[in-house]
TrEMBL record:
Residues with PTM N6-(pyridoxal phosphate)lysine: K304
Designated name of the protein: L-seryl-tRNA(Sec) selenium transferase
Function: Converts seryl-tRNA(Sec) to selenocysteinyl-tRNA(Sec) required for selenoprotein biosynthesis.
Co-factor requirement: pyridoxal 5'-phosphate
Top-level EC class: transferase
Pfam families documented for this protein: SelA
Organism this protein belongs to: Helicobacter turcicus
Keywords: Cytoplasm, Protein biosynthesis, Pyridoxal phosphate, Selenium, Transferase
One MF term in the entry's GO annotations: L-seryl-tRNA(Sec) selenium transferase activity
Family to which the UniProt record says this protein belongs: Belongs to the SelA family.
Keyword Protein biosynthesis: yes
Record gene name: selA
Catalytic activity: L-seryl-tRNA(Sec) + selenophosphate + H(+) = L-selenocysteinyl-tRNA(Sec) + phosphate
Length: 470
């Protein structure tokens, strides 16, 4: 009797399941509806997403899930499709005051630079073509003239990024040989680039000298042996040793290397042209100053303080750069026309003294008066409910330059106490800003928008995002 009724229940369940499964929409019918809804589609992607949806839906029903009506099915597939076809990179507003912010894409380009490089990218070009001879040309020729003119260096080579430059130089000149480095400069940058590890992978043998806080000239001198290839100096970039410390200047390493017929190499990290002297003097030497030492090799990034594209720029002695060009690795580290075009336009602006088209330089050079005026302008546009205050702030060049020195700036602050009436606090406001693509700074119960990295064209979005909270 009991068995009988259980069987009844099972039969009933099976019947209703059959019924449910029959209600799953047919693929063709769904695709027609989807095509009408989405207008322009990638047919194979849409079909794959639809089939995946139907599989998952069938599985859900088998596990006791509920039936969906046709339009709900269409809606869900449309959402998945739109998600799959969305771009991942999004423009953001940098209100942090850190000019070269690696997480936010480092240096940005101006409309003028983009207009200038547009013909190179939308048309064929002489990337590796010698127009005079009508034959194959050299990719590395392009940026040479401009860099040489700016730096007064014998030769220049541009690779994919500065990390690649460091690796290429060590691999070319110090494989199986000793590289002498101060213990105070065995740095890690950005979590993945560690000098000792890069040395090891390049085949170079690390010879540490000195101590963490003090390295003397004689430490380098005493470490030199017949197995030494190079005296290496690394910019400390993201830290500074305060107090009882001493390091040997690159000028002394250049002299010492020359005396013992070794290569001196400075991994400079950032590097800036002397038009920015007013920002960095006393903290960082300009590229021109370093080049005037007549060093063997120096490398720095293309998208840090010079404000161009991601690249590793190597300059120094022609004989050494010729050797770098013979290393097979160079083929793997080579730069694209995008990079060359963007860097060329940036360098051309420096050569012409037209640095207003280089946003990184512009932001670094902003003076207190103009920053204050910008802050006033933004504060005036913000709804009074937020009680925006103009405050003095500390902004940073970023990119590993002057890690312990700030640039005086002004910002607009919105304080927690003024947010409570709106049932908000500063962390909620910070999250809200992020949803609008605005990256701001939290400090002492306030949310701060630093003017050094903002443009007037950013104000509309900032003001609109705040209005949306009222
Ligand atoms: C930033 C930096 C690097 C890495 O340069 P990328 O262009 O990011 O590859 C290497 N060395 C130093 C000292 C740096 O500051």
């Amino acid at each position: 009797m009991q068995q009988e009724s259980q069987k009844d229940i099972q039969d009933h369940l099976r019947d209703s399941l059959q019924d449910s499964l029959q209600h799953i929409p047919k693929t063709d019918k769904l695709l027609n509806a989807l095509n009408a809804e989405l207008k322009m589609v990638n047919p194979s992607l849409l079909k794959r997403i639809t089939l995946e949806f139907l599989d998952a839906y069938r599985q859900e029903l088998l596990e006791g899930g509920v039936l969906l009506d046709f339009s709900t099915c269409v809606k869900r597939i449309v959402a998945t499709y739109q998600n799959a076809t969305q771009k991942s990179l999004k423009p953001l507003i940098n209100a942090t005051g850190i000019v070269v912010h690696t997480n936010l894409g480092r240096s940005i380009f101006s409309e003028e630079i983009l207009e200038e490089i547009k013909p190179i990218l939308t048309q064929y070009n002489n990337l590796e073509y010698n127009l005079q001879k009508g034959s194959r040309g050299e990719r590395y020729i392009h940026l040479q003239g401009q860099f040489k003119a700016l730096l007064g260096a014998e030769d220049v080579l541009v690779v994919n990024n500065n990390a690649a430059a460091v690796f290429l130089i060590l691999n070319t000149f110090a494989k199986g040989k000793e590289v002498i480095v101060s213990r105070g400069e065995l740095i890690e940058i950005g979590g993945s680039f560690r000098i000792p590890r890069v040395m090891e992978d390049s085949g170079a043998i690390l010879h540490e000298v000195g101590t963490t806080n003090k390295t003397h000239f004689k430490d380098y001198q005493e470490a030199i042996s017949e197995n030494s290839a190079m005296l290496f100096k690394a910019h400390k970039s993201n830290y500074a040793i305060e107090g009882f410390s001493e390091e040997v200047g690159f000028n002394e390493l250049v002299k010492l290397a020359r005396k013992y017929n070794l290569i001196d190499y400075y991994d400079l990290g950032s590097g800036y042209f002397s038009v920015l002297d007013s920002v960095f003097t006393g903290y960082e030497p300009s590229l021109e100053t370093i080049s005037a030492l007549n060093p063997s090799l120096v490398s720095f990034s293309g998208d840090k303080l010079i404000g161009g594209a991601q690249a590793g720029i190597i300059f120094g002695k022609k004989a050494l750069i010729d050797k770098l060009k013979q290393n097979q690795l160079l083929r793997m580290l080579r730069v694209d026309k995008f990079t060359i075009a963007a860097l060329e336009a940036t360098l051309s602006a420096y050569l012409k003294g037209n640095i207003k088209v280089i946003p990184t330089a512009q932001m670094l050079l902003r003076d207190k008066e103009s920053l204050h005026a910008l802050a006033q302008e933004l504060a005036a546009q913000i709804p009074p409910n937020f009680n925006p205050q103009i405050i003095a702030t500390k902004s940073y060049s970023g990119g590993g330059a002057m890690p312990s020195h700030y640039l005086e700036s002004f910002g607009v602050a919105i304080f927690a106490k003024d947010l409570s009436v709106l049932k908000l606090d500063e962390t909620k406001l910070e999250q809200h800003f992020r949803r609008y693509g605005i990256i701001a700074r939290l400090e002492n119960s306030a949310l701060i928008l630093d003017m050094r990295t903002l443009f007037k064209s950013d104000f509309t979005r900032i003001v609109e995002s705040l209005k949306a909270l009222l």
